[in-house]
TrEMBL record:
Upper classification of the organism: Eukaryota, Viridiplantae, Streptophyta, Embryophyta, Tracheophyta
Any coiled-coil regions, as ranges: 159-203
Keyword Coiled coil: yes
A GO molecular function held by the record: hydrolase activity
Organism: Aegilops tauschii subsp. strangulata (Goatgrass)
NADP keyword on record: no
Keywords associated with the record: ATP-binding, Coiled coil, Helicase, Hydrolase, Nucleotide-binding
Domain AAA+ ATPase, residue spans: 73-284
Top-level taxon of the source organism: Eukaryota
Catalytic reaction(s) noted: ATP + H2O = ADP + phosphate + H(+)
SUPFAM superfamilies linked to this entry: P-loop containing nucleoside triphosphate hydrolases
Family, similarity comment: Belongs to the DNA2/NAM7 helicase family.
The name this protein goes by in its record: Helicase ATP-binding domain-containing protein
Domain named Helicase ATP-binding: residues: 54-307
Length: 368
């Protein structure tokens, strides 16, 4: 059934994302048929140690998203969550567990900042991760995980030896400048060294990418031929998916067997400057479209926020989330003044104030 649907949409049977495409373009009957033929399954996978995570103790809505996200037969999962409900934290856990169950993962987001945020969190998990993208756009705090940096590190020894050989050959060349045929031979050797380096670079890049458990890039960065050559991923995850235009999401999605979109369409929508594009529908993200498909079957919601005081969250809850957003006990009544950083600041400010006061009193006494 999925095949017929794909052919209707002009896609090939061999496409790895066949079930994802069928789900996102098919109607309810198509999805039901795929389910009956055991091609897909919407249930939760059982988690071996659901509440045991080194990262945090997950709330119930997060646990549900986690077990839905780990079901290898589920083609699409949309994780919809207001600010601070732990989408990014949850994705980190999902990635760790997906790798543990043998899946290769491609992680993307619409912006470089969101990708680097994910790289930072994943760096602490001990997974083998690689960030692909223009080095000038990658945050300095995560450059050690960038493809260019890793490849440079691995090529260090090779480059040193090559440079030594080059210097020797150049010296030989100067010594035999009278002998044309010998000089031509040496020039050939020098050229060959350049080609060797190019080959070695290409080989190392492919090695690093295929060894990686998780590859990260922006949505559009996933069009990089280096990522495409790596082969099909088992799982594609898109964070901040509410902010990306649908065509950009298809770039990573078509490189994986299943996908998870996390975000919130009540926050920033895709930035579209052209009125024509807006009228054509580009303003609606894939996440928003997917969450309306198949009576909401694709979506799960996170309902507890772990970031802000309840007075702020309850306003947002009422105005934007039909009163469904709750505040975790740990943050519901916490104030900025309780934060350790602010406390240190207040102490230092009052310290400075008391010194200033003492100086003033001393000055007054001296005047007297
Ligand atoms: N179950 C939890 N227990 C304790 N803290 C949590 C839990 N889940 C998330 N947090 C904390 O809540 C904060 C927000 O999490 P996170 O950044 O993952 O949210 P988000 O949904 O991605 O937010 P945004 O919409 O801004 O991207 C973080 O400080 C995170 O450590
Ligand atoms: Mg986030």
């Amino acid at each position: 059934e999925a095949l017929m649907l794909l052919q209707r949409n002009g896609l090939l049977k061999s496409n790895a994302s066949i079930d994802v495409v069928a789900t996102l373009f098919g109607d309810s009957k198509d999805v039901m048929k795929m389910e009956q033929n055991c091609l897909i399954d919407w249930g939760e996978s059982s988690l071996p140690d659901p509440r045991l995570s080194e990262r945090c103790a997950f709330d119930d809505s997060q646990l549900r998203a986690l077990s839905l996200g780990l079901n290898k037969k589920r083609p699409v999962l949309v994780i919809q969550g207001p600010p601070g409900t732990g989408k990014t934290v949850l994705l980190t856990e999902l990635i760790v567990r997906a790798v543990r169950q043998g899946e290769s993962v491609l992680v993307t987001a619409p912006s470089n900042a969101a990708v680097d945020n994910m790289v930072e969190r994943l760096s602490r998990t001990g997974l083998n991760i690689v960030r692909v993208g223009n080095p000038a756009r990658i945050s300095p705090s995560v450059t050690s995980k960038s493809l260019a940096e890793i490849v440079n590190g691995r090529l260090g020894q090779f480059r040193k030896e090559l440079e030594r050989k080059r210097t020797d050959l150049r010296k030989d060349l100067r010594d035999c400048i009278e002998d044309d045929s010998l000089a031509a031979g040496i020039r050939q050797l020098l050229k060959q060294l350049g080609r060797d380096l190019e080959m070695k670079e290409k080989e190392t890049i492919m090695e690093v990418l295929s060894d990686a458990q998780v590859v990260l890039s922006t949505n559009t960065g996933a069009a990089d031929p280096l990522i495409r050559k790596t082969g099909c991923f088992d799982l594609v995850i898109i964070d901040e998916a509410g902010q990306g235009i649908e065509p950009s999401c298809w770039i990573p999605i078509l490189q994986g067997k299943r996908c998870i979109l996390a975000g919130d369409h009540c926050q920033l929508a895709p930035a579209i400057l052209s009125r024509k594009a807006l009228e054509g529908g580009l303003g609606k993200s894939m996440m928003e479209r997917a969450s309306l498909l198949h009576d909401g079957l694709l979506t799960t919601r996170l309902t507890v926020q772990h970031r802000m005081h309840d007075s702020i969250a309850s306003w947002a809850s009422k105005e934007m989330y039909q009163g469904l957003l709750q505040s975790s006990h740990s943050v519901a009544s916490h104030l900025l003044a309780d934060s350790p950083v602010v406390k240190v600041y207040i102490l230092s400010v009052s310290g400075v104030r008391s010194i200033a006061w003492n100086v003033y009193v001393f000055w007054v006494c001296v005047q007297d």
